[in-house]
Every structure is written in structure tokens, then in C-alpha cells.
Design goal:
This protein is of the alpha+beta class. It has one domain (2-114): Gcn5-related N-acetyltransferase (GNAT) (Aminopeptidase, 3-Layer(aba) Sandwich), CATH 3.40.630. 33% of the residues lie in helices and 29% in strands. It is built from four helices and five strands. A five-stranded mixed β-sheet has the order 1-2-3-4-5. Helix 3 links the parallel strand 4 (66-74) and strand 5 (100-103). Pfam families: Acetyltransf_1. It comes from Sporolactobacillus terrae. This is N-acetyltransferase. GO terms for molecular function: acyltransferase activity, transferring groups other than amino-acyl groups.
Length: 125
């Protein structure tokens, strides 16, 4: 289940974001989380399964009709189980069909791996 980030999840979100190679440096990680907390066009979501938080996905709403997935990370214990794909599909539903959802350059290869040929790559049905 996709849930919105809130301050009480800060340490969990930072831990998950720290698995992203570009977010390893603590100063940059803090700036990233601060951006999601302060800028309404940047939204962070966590993926919760029962009581465990397994992943995080961050999206930048660049316009009324476009959003870019900037960050996505899954707890290493749950990788290769489709959690990332589930997060992307749930995010697609959450933001609505009228919004074009695309991957950033940083996550493009991961996004393409989630949606192999013959599947829905551009997530506007």
C-alpha cells in the first residue's frame, strides 16, 4: 500500500533513500528529504506491506499534466519481488490518468527493467 511521507517516517525514508548511489552522502540525503518536505511539487511516498515499510518512491510534479519519478528504492531484503513495479503502478493510480508519469534519467534503466517489452512502459493507459 502506498502511503504519503510524513515527518515521523523521516529516518525510515532516509534509510531507504540511502540505498540510491547518488544519495549516499548524508548532506545530499538531508537536502533531498528537505526538498520533499518543503516543496509541494516534490512528493514522497512509502510502500507499506502489513506493518513493514519496504520501499520509497519520490515524484516531481513538473506541471498539471506531467510528473517525473525522481527516486525509487526498495529494501534489499525485498528486491526482485516486484515491489518497485507495484510502487510505480500505485503511484500511477494515485496521481491520476490525466498525468503523464515518466522516469528521470537516473532511474530510467530501472523503470525499463520493471516494464519489459510488451508491457505498459509509459504509464498513461
Amino acid at each position: 500500500m502506498l502511503i504519503r511521507y510524513k515527518k515521523s517516517y523521516e529516518k525510515i525514508a532516509m534509510g531507504l533513500l540511502s540505498f540510491i548511489p547518488s544519495e549516499k552522502e548524508i548532506k545530499l540525503l538531508l537536502q533531498t528529504v528537505q526538498k520533499y518536505e518543503e516543496d509541494e511539487s516534490w512528493q514522497l511516498f512509502l510502500w507499506k506491506d502489513d506493518e513493514d515499510i519496504l520501499g520509497v518512491v519520490g515524484v516531481h510534479l513538473t506541471s498539471e499534466h506531467e510528473a517525473v519519478i525522481e527516486h525509487i528504492s526498495v529494501n534489499p531484503s525485498y528486491r526482485a519481488e516486484g515491489v518497485g513495479k507495484q510502487m510505480i503502478l500505485a503511484l500511477r493510480q494515485f496521481i491520476g490518468e490525466h498525468v503523464h508519469l515518466a522516469p528521470s534519467q537516473a532511474i530510467k534503466s530501472y523503470f525499463n527493467k520493471c516494464f519489459q517489452e510488451g508491457e505498459e512502459k509509459e504509464t498513461n493507459s
